[in-house]
Write the structure tokens for this entry.
Amino acid sequence: MLFTRPFNTIFAFITILSFGFIGYSNITADDDIQSVSRNKNQSLSKREMAFSNFCAGYFFMLEKDWESAAGNFEKALLLDRSSERIIRHLATCYFQLGKNEKAIEFIEKLVKINPQEFNVHYTLATLYETVGRNREAISEYEYARRCKTTKLDHVFLADTLYRLANLYMNEGMMEKVSECYQSMFDMKIVNEPAKIYYEIGQRYFENNDIKKAIGFFLKVKDTDPKLHFANFYLTLCYDALGDYDNAEKEAKIFLEKEPDNWVMHLALSEIYGKTKNESKQSEEVKKTQEILEKNVDAESKEPKEYFMLCQIYRKQNRIDDAIDVIENIKLISVDKETKRDAHYLLSNLYYESKKFDKVEEELQMTLKLDPDFHEANNFLGYYYAENNKNLDEAIQLISKALKVQPCNGAYIDSLGWAYYKKAQAEGRDDYLTEALKKLLEAVQLMEEPDIYEHVGDVHYSLGHWDNAVDAWEKAKALYKNVPGSEAKVEDVMTKLERIKRLISIEKANLKVVVNHEESKSGAKP
């Protein structure tokens, strides 16, 4: 939630449940005990014992010795089980002790005693929410809002509706959310309706209900045009619906107020890309780049700005510049996950720039930060296999990645390739068979040219030459559709030419042998 915050649970609990009962300067123990022992038929000894236990609990409560207070109130309650005041004090003590479920137990008793009291339902609902019993919290908040309230309760009623709307949001019940906020509007207990509309619009947007999101963001514009982030979301909404004219219009309105917002410049560049306006697209990408470069040079504390600038450089094939940007992340304070992602991205960039000595180093750093990061486990395993080193460890690393994503075709291909390399290193046909099994499984999941090329290599090693030709032909055709794969196409064509010559020679030799055998047969008497 961005704008309105619900009351602190402790404040709500103490204020609502205990209001009038623990205002120490205004209430005496004598006042309290009168409500403890109202039954005129009770024996004097029981009344005296109840009085003694209650007073002890009350004064322990004044000292904030909640444990001792609760113990004495429990004893008093045994003598007067229907005392509302003792039950309230017990609920307060257990709440202060952090025993929320125990506090709930006593407030549930209060609900039975006073089923129409707003304060009790509200307090019970807030505690249900605190312990994660959200469905029960919803039920109690709904009950509370139907109770009779005073002007003093209105601020808490507003909080009830806000909390209820928040719970409904978490449940994805957006119509209920709107109804709660509408009640707040009708009761005139909302000071800034535009911000409420904005929040509802955000949630509809997050739930991909774009048309309803647009409706609420338009209400924001009508109610408070100064909230220009409504223009931001309207840009995204219209873009999602393919209404590029309105998307462009809202983006420009937003950028008039925030000209250095690179996120919107980037979004606008993507809109121009979809409308085939290449000149304006390039212009917006350039503006995005300039803003990001300025921010990064000023040692921005936002890691996403470094990652985005890196992405732009990468698309421009400026790999060394992309590396420099991500290296700069190491100079700012970031969380562990961001550090991990930076090292992993660097491993990819160094691989692309053929600085292979740095690849392994960055992957090792990645896995030091997160040993279960499956992308890095697979990459390092594949890297080892490609370089014919640490092949047993390569198999272990890739197998670890596959435990996380067992149906990932790229990972299965890596494992098959590692077995192939191990078969080559040890001369083991059983590893070749295992390699082929994995690679054929991978190609069923992902029809990628490099997987077909690997399948062809293994077939070739097993002497399945016709199968190798089929696989390499598929690899060649797929590589031709991948920009920048000319070298790969050439490599595969070289393999195909070589194997076709071998097949041709084999057939020629076989023909010679057959002719020789036939001539020998014909020469017999």
Remarks:
- Residues 1-7, 18-31, 36-42, 512-516 have pLDDT under 50 and may be disordered.
- DSSP finds 27 helices and no strands in the chain.
